[in-house]
Amino acid sequence: MQDFLYELGVSEQLFNYVIMPALIFIARVGDVSINTLRIMFMMSGKRNVAPFLGFFEALIWLLAIGQIFQNINNPMSYIAYAAGFGTGTFVGMFFEEKLALGRVLVRIITPISEPKLLEFMKERDYRFTSVGAEGRYGKVNLLFTVMKRENLQEFIAKVKEIDEKAFYTIESVKRVSEDELNVMEDRPRFKSRLFSKART
Fold it and tell me: Is the pTM of this model over 0.90?
């Protein structure tokens, strides 16, 4: 490629101090962004996608680092490499937020009674557990729920609408056992049928 650009009239200085650093920067943005997405897919349990992304991440990284070794005396290569890493981190986080893959665990602590929030969650078929707890300043309500990340923004907006000072934490969830949740939902009906048979 270098010889081809020279034939087009590109000077050696332009290639070494502009074109090559730009290519290194773009490659680094690409591989760091893919790395962020790969980790996200791994945390979401997407086993088929993560290795595929890992292949391209390693390939792009090798191409970038190879160009740096070929231009080891060019300080612009190092600057482009570092700048690409920082920019790639930002780009990867941006795509992660937009894709909103996987599920999250949300914990909410509020001293305010939460019937409106619970009704909101029931309407949208969110599974949750609500318990009473003791906080520094007295009684509080503790709510646990697991939901898709794409629904998180709407849910947090509802929480703030009910109590703008509510304390909440959000964590990524690698796996959710839907089968076990379904068994738990069926358990009360199973008990009622069992007791009805026993009484007869």
Answer: no
